[in-house]
Amino acid sequence: MQGNLNQQIVNVGWKQDRERHESLLLNANGDNPGRTKTRYRLLFLAHHFPPLRAISCVRTWNVAKYLSRIGWEVSVLTPDPTLWQCVDEPKNIEKLLVQEKIRRIPTRHEWQCLMPEIFRYNNNGINWLIGGISRRVQRQFGIDRAIGWKKAVEKACVKFGKGSFDIILATGEPFITFFLAERLAKKIQCPYVLDYRDPWTDNPYISRPIFQYAVQREARLLKGASAVTVVSPAWATSIRNKCKSHSKVHVLTNGYDPEELGPVQPFVFDHKAIVYTGNFYLPKRGLAPVMAALRVLSRTYKDATPPWLFHYYGVQEQYVRSEAARFGVEDYVWCHGNVPRKEVLSAVRGASVALVISSVSEQVDLDEQGMIPGKLYEAIGLQTPVLLIASANSDSRRILERIGTGGMFMAKETYAIAECLERMLLVENTQLFPPDEFSWNHISHSLDRILGSALKVGVNKNCFSPSV
To answer: Are 70 and 99 in contact (CB under 8 A)?
Structure first.
């Protein structure tokens, strides 16, 4: 019945009154726990949320936005935006929260020195020493970097009690959100759902040892969750192996928001532009294969290609410049630094090639296989040709295969990458049509069904097991 119901909801369309969604839910679920006349109340624990300038906020914002449009009453528990170091259009976000009927519950945050890259933290004088020691202790004992959010959340939720919300959704990392979801679910007596944006205890980008208590905590939280969402098929397999359950784990990919990307105007480059945005994660996601290909392109195909430059938008300028110098292509590289999101999107739309690096390894394990950079979906939504560097078994390849355009290579295929770049630079940009399956207005209906199923099942009795 629930599956048929949600199919009806999909057919209603975005321009219809959201009351239609509510009536469908109420008519289908006579045993709807605690809801008879009003919308389902969702408490969304999102440590990263706009106006914070971070790729993670693309997912958290679109989850809140489109669930609210479908008919959920969304309350987002998140640090106060005045605490963030880099923000994008905070005044506009305030307007959008009102427009989309999203309630934000702002909190304070202690121990900001553990996350100095995102918080307004005074790192001078004695604070520099205290912060350095604190981060060393945090790494040595495997403490969650967002541990300072725990007391702030408990204080903000002190008035919540039984029935305050119907369900809790927590997204990580940081994975303190999962722990907080469990505690709040016990207090409110409602189910909780875990959303993995990244792996936790088996993150391939974390080289330090994983403490056994963290593994045990993850297992307990997975056991108590009524549902779990992950961003890729490989991660779904990994999580299913951990929680010994197939039915509660669901793939909920990242995506693009057509309403955000549709109005983006392309930046007009006076040359052919190859654009990379965001971070590198060394040594698994590095720039060397690209620089090697650019060296071939600058020498072998110098007379065959129009003028071109490689543009980098992000905070790792020093690394990019050093790699360019190492391969002798510094004259072809232009670094723009950490710029507003609108500027980044404009550059990608105006580019001849959007470069995406998933992994520089040939074969990877499940957790690295499931790494699908969010910038891949943005390039798809902006209708820009993609050149993907990934392992042979990467889930990123499956995404690009569905699009049917662009190029996919392993890092060692230097000359093949250079040849593909030459072809992409020679061809005028053609009109691409991104598939709707990767748009957030489509993805959110899948999440709606997952949350609806979790509500139908009710509170997982394992949620009330003793904490460790």
So the answer is: no
| Contact between 132 and 112 (Cβ < 8 Å) | no
Q: What is the pLDDT of residue 37?
A: 44
Tokens describing residue 344: 């980044």
Cα separation, 184 vs 154, in Å, equals 8
Q: What is the second-level CATH architecture of the domain 259-435?
A: 3-Layer(aba) Sandwich (3.40)
Q: In what order do the strands lie in the sheet with 353-357?
A: 333-337, 308-313, 272-277, 353-357, 386-389, 407-409
Query: Which residue reads 């207090």 in tokens?
Result: 187
Q: Evaluate whether 178 touches 133 at the Cβ level (below 8 Å).
A: no
In the CATH hierarchy, which fold is given to the domain comprising 2-255+440-464? Answer: Rossmann fold (3.40.50)
Q: Do the bridges between strand 353-357 and strand 333-337 make them parallel or antiparallel, or are there none, so unpaired? A: unpaired
pLDDT at 431: 64
| pTM of this structure | 0.86
Collect the ranges in the chain with pLDDT lower than 50.
1-37, 466-468
Work out the end-to-end distance of the chain between its first and last CA atoms, rounded to an integer number of angstroms: 38
Q: Which residues make Cβ contacts (< 8 Å) with residue 67, sequence separation at least 6?
A: 42, 74, 444, 447, 448, 451
pLDDT, residue 10, reads 33
* Helix extents (H) in 125-257: 126-141, 150-156, 176-188, 212-224, 233-243
Q: What is the dihedral of CA 229, 233, 238, 243, to 10 degrees?
A: 40
Q: What is the pLDDT of residue 460?
A: 63
Taking the C-alpha atoms of residue 307 and residue 290, their distance in angstroms, rounded to an integer, is 17
Give the Å distances, CA to CA, from 205 to 281, 290, 315, 330, 359.
7, 20, 18, 28, 11
Q: Where are the domains of the chain?
A: 2-255+440-464, 259-435
How many helices and strands, by DSSP H and E, does the chain display?
18, 13
Q: What single DSSP character describes residue 84?
A: B
Peptide bond before 283: cis, by omega within 30 degrees of 0?
yes
Q: Is 448 helix (H, G, I), strand (E, B) or coil?
A: helix
H helix intervals, 300-383: 317-326, 341-350, 366-369, 374-381
pLDDT at 35: 38
Look at residue 468 in the predicted model and tell me its pLDDT. Answer: 40
Residue 259: exposure state from Cβ atoms within 10 A (0-12, 13-18, ≥19): middle
Task: Determine contact, residues 273/347, Cβ cutoff 8 Å.
Answer: yes
Give the integer Cα–Cα distance in Å for 77 and 55: 18
